[in-house]
Amino acid sequence: MKSNGLGRHGRRSGIIVATFAMAAISAALGPGVASADVYAGMTYADAKSRIASMHQKAVIATVSGDQVATDDCIVVSSMNSMFLDASGEGPDKEVLVNLNCTAPVAAPGKPGNSAASPEGRKALKERQAAHNISKNPAWCNEDPKRLEACKQICDRTGLCEV
C-alpha cells in the first residue's frame, strides 16, 4: 500500500479542514431560509386589502399584460421595499408587487394564458365549477365549507352568484 506522505493523522486533519471550509462557505452564503410569498396567487385587490390591514401600502412594481382590470390582476410575487421615501420612512411601509394582467385563458383574438399551462388549466377548471354552481346554486348551501368554496370561485371568476 502506497503512502501519500500524510499518514493517518494527516488524512484526518485534511478531512477536518475540508469540513470547516464547507461550514465557512455555507455561513458566508447564508442559511437559505425558504419562505412562501404570502401574496402570490391573490388578486391585486385582495393583496392590496391584506397589505393595508398590515398598515402598509401596496405599490405596483411591474405589470405583465393588460387584458384585465388592475384589481383583477394576479400577484406573481412581492417583496418589502428597500427604498426610503423623502421623509426618510423605511422599507417596512411599502410592499412591491409584480402583477400578471393577462386573461385567465386565451380565446380566439384575445391573448391570455394557454389552456395547457397550469394557470390556464386552473382557470378552465374554475370556469367549469362556476358553470356548475350557476346551474345548481342550492348545492353550495348544503354545507358551510362548500358555501365558502363556492363564494370564492364566484368571486374569482365573476361567472356565478351564491
Kindly describe this structure.
Residues 1-36 form the signal peptide. Residues 108-130 are annotated as: Disordered. Keywords: Signal. Residues 119-129 have a biased composition (Basic and acidic residues). The structure is a single chain. With 162 residues, the chain is of the alpha+beta class. The protein has 2 domains: 36-102; 114-161, no CATH class. Helices cover 40% and strands 14% of the residues. It has 4 helices and 3 strands. The chain has helices at residues 7-29, 44-53, 118-135, 144-157; strands at 57-64, 74-80, 94-100. Strands 1-3-2 form a 3-stranded mixed beta sheet. Helix 3 (118-135) packs across helix 4. The chain is globular.
Instruction: Identify low-pLDDT runs.
Output: none
Largest sheet: 3 strands, mixed
Share of β-strand residues:
5-15%
* Element string (H = helix, E = strand): HHEEEHH
- On the 0 to 100 scale, the average pLDDT is 82
What is the helix fraction of residues, given as a range? 40-55%
Shape category: globular
**What is the helix tally?**
4
